[in-house]
Amino acid sequence: MENHAIPEKAAVCGLYCGACGIFLATQSNDMEKLAQYAVRLNQPVEETRCLGCRSNTKTAWCRACKMVSCAAGKGVDFCGSCNEYPCEALKDFQAMMPHRAGLWESQARIAEAGPEVWMREMEIHFACPACGKANTSYDIKCPSCGNIPGNHFAGKHSAMIKEYLSKLSKS
Questions:
Q1: Residue 101: phi, psi to the nearest 5?
Q2: Domain check: are 99 and 155 in the same one?
Q3: Residue 4: pLDDT band by 50, 70, 90 thresholds?
Q4: Contact at 8 Å (CB) between 133 and 145?
Q5: Which DSSP string corresponds to 37-68?
Q6: Which has the least CB within 10 A, 14, 24, 92, 136?
Q7: Contact call for residues 50 and 22 (beta carbons, < 8 A)
Q8: What are 39-49's pLDDT values in tens digits?
Q9: Do 55 and 81 fall within a single domain?
């Protein structure tokens, strides 16, 4: 593994855990939102809490992440450090959901500036530009102040997010 401190909210795949609804609900102890996520994921609320992919408190999904075990087996901290990057598994993972749209940019930035700098940038990137509140990747509108977009990521990827949320609400 590389030689630096890695924030708990920096996933090996390049996701920023601080923009995850489950992470934010866990941090604020929002039991109503955690219960909603638990139902959606078909798992108990206790299995739904998460404080980041590198923390000891992870959802069942994050605990079973194949990319974490793959990276550990290859001795890398991030997929972008692997000789096989980007592999088919990561490409498939990235293409599945809108909140993964920035993985390639994140991996490049982590390699260029390091995980600590990237983390500080992500905290700004996923905060509401009007009120500064941390928001999820899917918050097109800030739940706190109503600003549109809810964060820079949601503004950049709003068409993809709206399409995904529309399909989700119909299912």
A1: -60, -30
A2: no
A3: low
A4: yes
A5: HHHHHTS-GGGT--S-TTSS---HHHHT-HHH
A6: 92
A7: yes
A8: 999 999 999 99
A9: yes
Residues 86 and 164 in one domain: no
pLDDT at 3: 46
- Residue whose pair of structure tokens reads 């955690």 in the numeric block: 34
Q: Which of 89, 71, 82, 92 is nearest to 11 (CA)?
A: 71
With 0-12 CB in 10 A as exposed, 13-18 as middle and 19+ as buried, what is 85? middle
Domain of 151, in residue numbers: 126-171
Domain count, the chain: 2
User: Looking at beta carbons, which pairs linking 138-145 to residues 24 or more positions away fall under 8 Å?
Assistant: 138/21, 138/98, 138/99, 138/164, 138/165
